[in-house]
Amino acid sequence: MLQTMIVGSLPRPTWLAPEGQQMHVNWNLEAAKLREAHDDAVRLAIADQEEAGLQILTDGEQRRKHYIWGFTEGLDGIDFSRLVKITTRGGRYGESLVDAARVVTPVRRRGSVMAEAVRFMKQHTSWPVKVTLPGPMTTTDTLADEYYGSRQKLAAALAQQLNDEAIELAEAGADIVQFDEPCFNIYLDEVEEWGIRTLEEAAKGVRAKTAVHICYGYGVPIVLKWKTTNTDWSHYGRTLPLLRTSAIDMISVECAASGVDPSVLAEARGKDLMVGVIDVGAEEVETPETVAARIRRALPYVDPMHLYPCTDCGMIPRSRAAARGKMKALADGAWLVRSELIQQSRKGSTVMGYKPSA
Ligand code: ZN
Fold first, then answer.
1. Contact 211, 309 (CB under 8 A)
2. Which residues, at least 6 apart from 185, have a Cβ–Cβ distance to it below 8 Å?
3. 219 CA to middle of ligand 1, Å?
4. Do 243 and 171 reside in the same domain of the chain?
5. Which of 85, 125, 165, 340 sits at a 20 to 30 Å CA gap from 176?
6. Which residue has the higher pLDDT, 154 or 88?
7. Are residues 142 and 196 in the same domain?
8. How far is the CA of 186 from the centre of ligand 1 (A)?
9. Could you tell me if 189 and 266 lie in one domain?
10. How much is the pTM?
11. Could you report the per-residue pLDDT of 302-332, keeping only the tens digit for each?
């Protein structure tokens, strides 16, 4: 119980990506050396997670220049040579227009995008491995459609490609395939009308646990500004009941930095819940006690066997030192609560899994 993991990304070493370019990078290395550099960065990401004491690992998304482009660049039908400006995320976070690639013909994978990366992970750790993909709705929201004519149609086409990819990632050894859908917190009507169904299409037949990550985006200033002024978190009352009856196994909810009341988690009872107990918007490292307190707040609403203490979102904007500290606090905080629960249950004298170092 209380198995720990991060949402997905970790900051990249500065020899791999220039500082200040963490979100959408131009690699520091020429193509010939990039493969080796990515492998090395992934080995470090694995080592950092293992050293911290996490129990489910990702590759820190070290190979991706961006969490969505990392997949869409593997598709035919999208023109990256001439970008256009679009509004994304409903303009919620106050960004000005952003560069978007254009969908110009049917989208189609040229081949597996991440299966080799999953096989590399499985060769270098014995812990369960999670791999992340952008969800169909969020991917749709990040592209300029000049072919399909409707968001729903583009999302359905992307879901088919994501499904083919997810099935291959599971075959390659992924234990969890997670779809990142921050847009599930924004376009609530569309989530009801076609978002959940399209997500299920992306996850259909995948022989691994399937997960969805819902959040308010990376801990960057414009997002933090919105988060600190928002007071209405009632949207979970609409999305979680829909996800509870969906085919998706696990749901990731940001609970540390946002003001989300953990009682909303009761709406997803029965599902596995990745509960965000690490704020990814601040360099300050939480104490294990703070993390433990955040986990305890969720316990009335989530069975501990279904509760996965997690970060709020990706840690890519953070320093590597802060990310390492936060992962250790996550593991140690979960250990504190796990120990308490085991003592309370009096069902065993040993604590399974991680023990914090002195
Ligand atoms: Zn996120």
1. no
2. 214, 215, 216, 235, 239
3. 9
4. no
5. 340
6. 154
7. yes
8. 13
9. no
10. 0.93
11. 999 999 999 999 999 899 999 999 999 999 9
Q: Count the neighbouring beta carbons within 10 Å of the beta carbon of residue 270.
A: 10
Q: For residue 350, is pLDDT > 60?
A: no
Task: Return d(Cα 300, Cα 315) in angstroms, integer.
Answer: 27
Per-residue pLDDT of 119-166, as tens digits, reads 999 999 999 999 999 999 999 999 999 999 999 999 999 999 999 999
Residue 12 counted as domain residue: no
Structural domain span for residue 175:
66-210
How many other C-beta atoms lie within 10 A of the C-beta of residue 65? 17
Question: Which phi-psi region, left, alpha or beta, contains residue 303 (left: φ > 0; alpha: ψ -120 to 50)?
Answer: beta
* Ligand 1 center–CA 180 separation, angstroms: 7
Residue 214 C-alpha to ligand 1 middle, in angstroms? 6
Q: Which residues surround ligand 1, an ion (CB under 5 A)?
A: 215, 313
Within-domain flag for 57: no
Q: Is 270 left (phi over 0), alpha (psi -120 to 50) or beta?
A: left
**Distance between Cα 8 and ligand 1 center (Å):** 8
- For residue 139, report the phi and psi dihedrals to the nearest 5 degrees: -65, -45
Single out the residue in 146, 180, 210 at which a domain terminates: 210
Residue 16 forms part of a structural domain: no
pLDDT of residue 227: 78
pLDDT over threshold 60, residue 351: no
User: What is the phi/psi pair of residue 355, to 5°?
Assistant: -115, 130
Burial class (CB in 10 A: 0-12, 13-18, 19+), 19: exposed
**Both 243 and 327 in a single domain?**
yes
Q: Based on the structure, what is the number of domains in the chain?
A: 2
